[in-house]
Specification:
Shape: globular
Structural class: mainly alpha
Radius of gyration: 32 Å
Strand order of the largest sheet: 4-5-6-3-7
Number of strands: 10
Strand content: 5-15%
């Protein structure tokens, strides 16, 4: 907290008083006495100002401004970490004292065999010391089979630490950029499962308040670690404690013979103990001591706990066991449902079980394998797509099964089928998939499906770009263009959902493309984000650039309509809302010039044009335009269901401006119902904000106003739209103050002032600041707040 002293005009009263008092003192007393007296008086005046600030309760919570979104990439810590107390204590002590008496970062290395718990130890320690690394905690996972570990780490760290508007340093400038970026910050970097040959020095942060933790199956070279922890398997006591904790008190009781068998088979490896506990939980108690279905195939010298894998394998159905057998045949340890489909069909071409085996069924099989720890469910770092990772020891075990059951011919068939499926998949055009599987669902309001498909398209485009990056430049350029185009599609869905930071990050990455169609869409999404944050000048600037790019793109004439729609909104929110009418009318003319794609854009254009008419005080005409858009958005053949609740939201705002509060509530409730049906929480928050404002303007039911505004504020706090959060804080503060709850009102209005100032919304900050004054009238405040241009269209799509 900090005390806010009275404003400058309120301090000027002290200056004449000091001059009048000090002049005779300096004229008629010795200079030493005059100096002492003057200092005492000045100190008294300053103390009075401080006391005045305290009496007036001018408290302002400080909001730390950040230039970038702080990365927090550590996965949730393991539920149990037993038998590693000493190692955890040494590691956390090093990381806690990382900045003391040192010129560089703290460096820790954790080594040990696969399944011994290296990652669990590093992640747990990272969570314990995370408050000390307030500028970020970054985890980079490596696949030892991938030859591009250096590129993977560089790209991941770049994405994590880039701020909005920062330029990508590229491979050549990464070392210098990374050193500067980490020199003065407090960042924890965890490099997990580091492969041999990786240049660790270039990924070590530079600052003395930073730290790096490296996990590896082998000795690490190229670092001078402050701490090296080599993990050995757990002893018998810790192993039994871990199994007992995993099974739960009294949930599953193991007899002495089975308990001894599990301890012997697991050999103290936490991964094996977790798998054995999963087996014990999943099987009926009378079947727990059934021997494995088969003896361990081949020699298991490289697998210290193959018998536990046999126990888990005996739990599987025949289809699941065959799927496990082929998992080792993929090129990478990361597998997706399509991978399993291709491998299973190739390995078992005459098996009726796999004749109709599709990606949905494969996903279900992978989920079941994850329950008994044969695979790990993770999310792709960039796209967010769920992927499955095969642990190293499971891959070894599956390879032995494949060799014993498939033979050389079966293995070759499976790999040929995988290569063919991979080639066919990479030949798919992301642009067509975006149009069919993302944008059509998006326009119809099926946002959850559109989001999932957009993530998959981004994942596919990234794989395609990775596969051809070393080929001829034309093919590589096309792959990079498709990747940028896919990122734009994902950014557009993010923006609609109100995930501002994610949307801005994806759009900024895509805007680096030089291709007109991609750059136009990326700039349009950036413009939409900027006007949502009420940065109207920046929004108009980006959208004019997008317009130039869209006019060059003859393949997608509808993109120009989308750009003009956004320009209409951004201009309506600017200081010259009359220019919005020109853009809206141009977009309307384009909608009527072609019979195919353009008419589908009409509901969105009518929404934007109605908003512009509202901003220009042409309420009657705005009502006609929005009514027409409402009717069109309900026509199934146009598939524009997303726009109907937004149009009704704008109709509610128009009714609020006309002081028809009952109609405003009716339209807002209708919009809320539409957004709820679409599972659109962000739109629901905007509808609740209008409902609360309608009750507040009526001065009739403050409790309902407060309830609706509280729900709206909670929604915006989660989604990341800081301007909407500031707006909801303002109106909720007004409601609290009118209800007589002054402490809550003061806190919220102070927060609104801070957020509006951060966003450079001077009018919003002024209104919130004036609401804190003693001389305050709800009716005058509501009247003033409802007429300024920057507040006009209370919309967010």
């Amino acid at each position: 907290m900090s005390i806010r002293l009275p404003s400058l005009p309120g301090r000027f009263w002290a200056l004449p008083l000091l001059v009048v008092f000090a002049a005779p003192v300096w004229l008629f007393t010795p200079w030493r006495v005059a100096l002492v007296v003057s200092l005492v008086v000045a100190g008294g005046v300053l103390a009075g100002l401080v006391v005045r600030g305290l009496v007036q309760r001018r408290w302002r919570p400080r909001m730390r401004r950040r230039a970038y979104l702080v990365p927090a990439d550590l996965p949730p810590p393991p539920e149990l970490l037993i038998g590693r107390d000493d190692e955890l204590d040494r590691l956390t002590r090093l990381l806690t004292a990382a900045h003391r008496d040192r010129s560089g970062p703290a460096v820790a290395v954790v080594t040990g065999r696969e399944g011994v718990g290296k990652t669990a130890l590093a992640v747990t320690a990272g969570h314990l010391v995370a408050p000390r690394y307030r500028d970020g905690q970054i985890l980079v996972r490596f696949d030892t089979q991938r030859p591009d570990g250096d590129d993977l780490a560089r790209e991941y760290l770049t994405r994590a630490l880039l701020g909005p508007g920062d330029a990508d340093p590229g491979a050549e400038g990464f070392d210098r950029w990374y050193r500067r970026r980490t020199l003065t910050r407090r960042i924890l970097v965890v490099l997990d499962n580091v492969p041999a040959g990786l240049d660790l020095a270039r990924f070590t942060p530079a600052g003395r308040r930073c730290a790096i933790v490296v996990t590896s199956r082998r000795t690490v070279e190229g670092l001078a670690p402050d701490l090296v922890e080599h993990l050995e398997p757990l002893d018998g006591t810790a192993s039994r404690r871990l199994v007992a904790a995993l099974l739960g008190a009294g949930a599953v009781v193991l007899d002495e013979r089975l308990d001894e068998r599990i301890m012997r088979a697991a050999r103290g490896y936490p991964a094996a103990l977790q798998m054995a506990a999963a087996v014990a939980r999943s099987r009926r108690s009378e079947d727990l001591d059934v021997p494995p279905r088969a003896e361990p195939p081949g020699e298991a010298g490289a697998l210290p706990f193959a018998e536990v894998l046999d126990l888990a394998c005996a739990l599987l159905t025949e289809q699941e066991r065959r799927c496990l057998t082929v998992l080792s045949l993929s090129e990478h340890r990361r597998v997706a449902p399509w991978t399993l489909v291709a491998l299973a069909r190739g390995a078992f071409p005459h098996d009726a079980t796999f004749a109709a085996f599709d990606e949905f069924q494969a996903g279900c099989v992978l989920d079941r394998l994850a329950r008994v720890r044969f695979v790990e469910l993770r999310a792709d770092e960039r796209s967010g797509v769920a992927v499955f990772r095969i642990p190293y020891f499971v891959r070894q075990y599956a390879a032995m099964l494949a060799e014993a059951e498939l033979g050389a011919d079966g293995i070759e068939r499976a790999r040929d089928a995988y290569v063919a499926a991979d080639r066919s998949r990479l030949e798919r055009q992301p642009e067509m998939r975006l149009r069919r599987d993302v944008y059509h669902l998006f326009d119809d309001g099926r946002l959850s499906e559109a989001l999932g498909n957009a993530r998959e398209v981004v994942h596919l485009a990234q794989e395609r770009s990775q596969a051809v990056k070393d080929r001829r430049s034309v093919e590589a350029d096309a792959a990079r263009r498709d990747e940028a185009l896919a990122e734009v599609g994902l950014a557009e869905v993010f923006a609609e959902l109100g995930w501002i930071d994610d949307a801005l990050s994806a759009a900024t990455s895509a805007a680096r493309s030089v291709e007109a169609a991609t750059r136009s869409r990326a700039l349009r999404v950036q413009g939409r984000i900027r006007w949502r944050l009420r940065q109207s000048a920046a929004a108009v600037e980006r959208l004019r650039l997008a317009r130039e790019q869209a006019e060059r793109n003859e393949r997608d004439p509808a993109e120009l309509i989308r750009v003009l729609r956004e320009l209409t909104v951004a201009s309506a929110l600017s200081d010259q809302p009359e220019t919005a009418l020109e853009y809206g009318e141009q977009a309307l003319r384009l909608c009527g010039t072609a019979p195919d794609e353009q008419p589908r854009r009409l509901p969105g254009v009518l929404w934007a044009y109605g908003l512009a008419l509202t901003a220009n005080r042409r309420h009657d005409r705005a009502a006609e335009v929005l009514s027409r858009g409402d009717t069109l958005s309900g026509q199934p053949e146009l598939a524009q269901g997303l726009w109907r609740p937004w149009i009704r939201h704008q109709r509610a705002y128009l009714a609020l401006q006309s002081r028809d509060f009952e109609a405003a509530r009716g339209f807002a409730v209708s919009a809320l119902n539409g957004f709820t049906t679409l599972k659109h929480r962000y739109g629901s928050g905007h509808s609740r904000l209008l409902i609360g404002r309608a009750y507040l303007h009526e001065e009739r039911d403050l409790e309902r106003a407060v309830s609706a505004l509280e729900e709206a504020l909670q929604t915006f706090q989660r989604c990341g739209d800081r301007w909407a959060e500031a707006e909801a804080s303002y109106w909720l503060g007004v409601a609290y103050k009118n209800r007589g709850d002054l402490p809550k009102a003061t806190l919220l209005l102070r927060l609104a002032v801070e957020m509006f100032e951060t966003l450079k919304d001077g009018a919003g900050a002024k209104d919130a600041r004036e609401a804190l004054d003693r001389e305050w009238s709800l009716s005058s405040l509501l009247g003033r707040r409802g007429t300024r241009h920057s507040e006009q269209p209370r919309i967010s799509s």
